[in-house]
Design goal:
434 Repressor (Amino-terminal Domain), mainly alpha
Length: about 180
């Protein structure tokens, strides 16, 4: 009788173990997938926070360049050659000048080539830049270079959205043996 009781207990234990695994294993897979998704979302949040901070710092750099009043702009003549000469004098790239002025790099190129003229607000900032000293401008340039976002290594690519994030495959559920 004791042998039958022992066999019965082992069989019940085996069946309970199998049933538990059939319920718990898919849940473990889901938990792992959710943990992975949370980690990816934390990484994306970190990047977004860094970019938001960068935008605030760029705005603060633009605020350091005090534009002159619009009344004084009537007598100011700024052309492409002057912009290019000023940029080379301060040893700035088009990208740095564009960030300082709050415009695109292409805008600076078009001003320098004479295709378009800068707007009055930008002309006011350019005149303010022209009136600043080299040391002040170098400080701003260094600050902009320090604020440049860090490039992601080529080995790891983060998905742009949560929908693009890979999710672990879930095993098919089989009906429990009765």
């Amino acid at each position: 009788m004791s042998n039958l009781n022992l066999v019965f207990r082992k069989e019940v234990s085996r069946i309970v173990s199998r049933e538990t695994r059939s319920v718990v294993d898919p849940l473990i897979v889901k938990v792992l997938a959710l943990k992975k998704e949370i980690a990816e979302q934390k990484q994306m949040l970190k990047v977004l926070v860094e970019n938001a901070g960068l935008q605030n710092r760029i705005v603060s750099v633009k605020d350091k360049i005090k534009p002159i009043p619009e009344e004084d702009l009537e007598n100011v003549r700024i052309g492409g050659k002057l912009i290019k000469k000023m940029r080379s004098k301060f040893k700035m790239t088009r990208d740095v000048l564009a960030k300082m002025l709050g415009v695109s790099q292409n805008s600076v190129y078009q001003w320098e080539s004479g295709r378009v003229r800068p707007r009055k607000q930008v002309i006011a900032r350019l005149v303010a830049l022209r009136n600043m000293g080299k040391k002040d401008i170098r400080k701003i340039v260094v600050q902009l270079k320090d604020q440049a976002p860090k490039k992601q290594s080529a080995g790891k690519k983060r998905p742009a959205t949560a929908e693009q994030a890979p999710v672990a495959k879930q095993p098919e559920q089989t009906p429990a043996a009765e």
